[in-house]
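Protein Entry — a single chain follows
Fields — amino acid sequence, structure tokens
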Amino acid sequence: MRFSFSLFLAGLLLGASASNVLDLEPGNFDSVIGQGKPGLVEFFAPWCGHCKNLAPVYEQLADAFAHARDKVVVAKVDADGAGRPLGQKYGVTGYPTLKWFDAQGNAEPYEGARDLDTLVSLAVGGGLNEEAGRLAELDSVAQKFLAATGDARDAIYKEARALSDALGAASNHYLRVMEKVISNSDAYIEKESKRLASILSKRTMAPAKLDEIKIKANVLRAFIAEKLEEAEEKVESIIGRATAEL
């Protein structure tokens, strides 16, 4: 999808007095979604605390694309009110749930980070950087987890689960990696990293799906970052000793 960066800046600068987030319900959903342009839809509940926390960022996202509505849709559905049938149709079981719809109306769950930069990259259609999906609070826990063994790993996993309650859905990727390592072995990280790298290199999936893969790959890197740094330090040490002996 081509996108004019000038339009994006205009949306940020001009803002809007009324919300630019489209309100969808059963009566107008099909006339907006699947009509030749992709879109991000938030399924929310008015009483949901996490939804209220997301609201300012989501409004900024919609403002940024207010002048590019012919390119992308930013919308929401009250899945606990008038939009309940839509929530049921798309398998919504918690709030907020974000789903990316392609131009034909095919839905994909979005479980990545919910900061403005990441959501803008999603709406533009790919190209997430190496930090997308990473959470500083869990990066350090991930490295401790990989360095530990046995019961210590179980304790660190519980620590990560406790943190995830406050960090939201973006933390799920970290937990899944830990669960896979506990049930299988450390080899899972290298094997899965190679598999995801292969998918990303081929780029045969929809942009939104590629972004999901990129986020998973980025989170895996959090677990091996410390080992990579150790390897680099060892190489530098060897080079230093060899140079000194010349």
User: Anything to note?
Assistant: The beta strands are 22-24, 39-44, 73-78, 97-101, 107-110. The chain has two domains: 5-124, 136-245. Residues 207-245 form the longest helix (39 residues).
